[in-house]
């Protein structure tokens, strides 16, 4: 799991924006994909069995949110009102 998180972190920190798409390596991601992945990570965080898994999914969701906000500017902002037990 740690290696996967590290790879995800590297992908996000090396991403560049070109118009309506974000380039991660040679792959192009559009806004719909980023929104979908952010929601998936929020859902996984909400149902995670351990605190480590929850924190990992939360971090990935935040990274997707940063990419969404970078891509859309001020036109789109995601609030993160996550309640922890």
How many helical stretches? Answer: 3
Structural class of the helix and strand makeup? mainly alpha
Query: What Rg, in angstroms, do the CA atoms define?
Result: 13 Å
The tally of domains stands at 1
User: pLDDT average, as an integer?
Assistant: 75
Helical residue percent? 55-70%
> Which regions contain 5 or more consecutive residues with pLDDT less than 50?
none
Q: What's the main sheet like? A: 3 strands, antiparallel
Count the beta strands: 3
- Give the SSE order as H and E letters: HEEEHH
Distance between the first and last residues' Cα? 23 Å
Strand line-up in the sheet with most strands: 1-2-3
Describe the structure.
The chain is mostly helical. The protein has one domain (2-75). The protein has 3 helices and 3 strands. A 3-stranded antiparallel sheet has the order 1-2-3. Strand 2 and strand 3 (27-29) form a beta hairpin. Helix 1 packs parallel to helix 3 and helix 2 (31-46) packs antiparallel against helix 3 (51-72). The model has no long low-confidence stretch (mean pLDDT 75).
What are the defining features of this structure?
85 residues, mainly alpha, 3 helices
Topology:
Layout: H1 2-13, E1 16-18, E2 21-24, E3 27-29, H2 31-46, H3 51-72
Antiparallel strand pairs: 1-2, 2-3
Helix pairs in contact: 1-3, 2-3
Give the gist of this structure:
This protein is mainly alpha-helical and 85 residues long. It is 59% helix and 12% strand.
């Amino acid at each position: 799991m740690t290696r996967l998180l590290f790879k995800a972190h590297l992908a996000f920190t090396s991403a560049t924006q070109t118009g309506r798409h974000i380039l991660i390596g040679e792959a192009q991601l559009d806004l719909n994909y980023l929104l979908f992945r952010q929601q998936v990570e929020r859902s996984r965080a909400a149902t995670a069995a351990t605190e480590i898994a929850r924190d990992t999914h939360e971090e990935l969701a935040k990274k997707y949110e940063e990419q969404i906000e970078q891509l859309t500017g001020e036109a789109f902002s995601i609030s993160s009102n996550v309640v922890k037990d």
